[in-house]
Amino acid sequence: MKFIKISLVIVLSFFIGSVAMAGVDPYYSYQWYLKSIKAPEAWSVTKGSPSVVVAVVDTGVDIDHPDLKNNIWVNIDEVANDGKDNDGNGFVDDYYGWDFATGGSDPNPKVTDGYDSSAISHGTFIAGIISAMHDNNFGVRGVSANVKIMSLRALDSAGHGSSRPVAEAIDYAVANGAHVINLSFGGNEYSAKLRSSIINAYNKGVLVVAAGGNAADGISNVDLTNNPIYPICYDQKLSKNTILGVIATDKSKKIAPYAHYGAGCIDIAAPGDDLTSLGFFNSHYPALQTYIKQGWRGSSFSAAMVSGAAALLKSVNLSLKPKDLIEIITED
């Protein structure tokens, strides 16, 4: 397997233009990875179209976050909180998305017993990387400034979940207009249903981006060729590449020491170390009383950068299919 060790320079060299001036986003100077992937050059052509939607299937996204709230997808065919399924899609009051982990129309993270403060902010951190607002005197910048985030909660407040709610979230995303689906998690559970949902997304023109996973401290990296994890490896034995698999690089553009490896699942590498993005804020819990998270690492966030880059490409040409996006993004 040949890794793209220079992250998303290949992708964003598709765009040609001058470097954008730094704005008033106070944490932009900490976002070294945006310059590494040449995002400012991309912004001279597009900062993303609000007609492009990225579904974040995760622990939920803080839809009221000051750096995200204007970029949160809304189901315009639904009337919020009227107790009816106005658009007839089988979901009542799904104005902002859906909670597939516990059921219900609120796709925000949920603070429950046993919550993990990092896990509960995981989806919001990813959403910030993809499409935090620009030039709003707050927070960070996303790879996109205008792309909409569809929040689909499929993992609980500790970051745990099973394949069925993930598959249901993917089906929802496809049926309700998502162009890219970000899956920044993995496990050993094989699910024919989840595999089928991912293949259906690809066939319906929706790109699925999945993270390659990380080795925990003191644990060896996994060779995905012989020890696949899912969802990234569902296309391992298919004749076509239906999942854009991502692992992490460090600041020197080398594969991160904690990144998994192996042929058949991984397509590209992107920055994954010392990252700054957004956190889930809840005034009732001291560990959650911050809008910004810093120093995070992992392939979860590398995948989010690739999802953001794919969204920029879709913003330039909405007719690009998953096959086209994968070819452009992984082009040598």
Question: What is the rounded distance between the termini?
Answer: 13 Å
How many β-strand runs?
A: 9
Range of helix content: 10-25%
Overall average pLDDT: 92
DSSP helical segment count: 8
- Ranges where pLDDT stays below 50 over 5 or more residues in a row are 1-22
Q: Which structural class do the helices and strands define?
A: alpha/beta
Radius of gyration: 18 Å
Strand order of the largest sheet: 2-3-1-4-5-6-7
Main pleated-sheet profile: 7 strands, parallel
Order of helices and strands: HHHEEHEHEHEEEEEHH
Q: Mind explaining what this structure looks like?
A:
There is one protein chain. This protein is of the alpha/beta class. The chain has eight helices and nine strands. It has a seven-stranded parallel β-sheet, sandwiched between helices. Strand 2 (97-99), helix 4 (117-131) and strand 3 (148-153) form a beta-alpha-beta unit. Helix 4 packs parallel to helix 7 (299-316). The longest helix has 18 residues, at 299-316. The radius of gyration is 18 Å and the shape is globular.
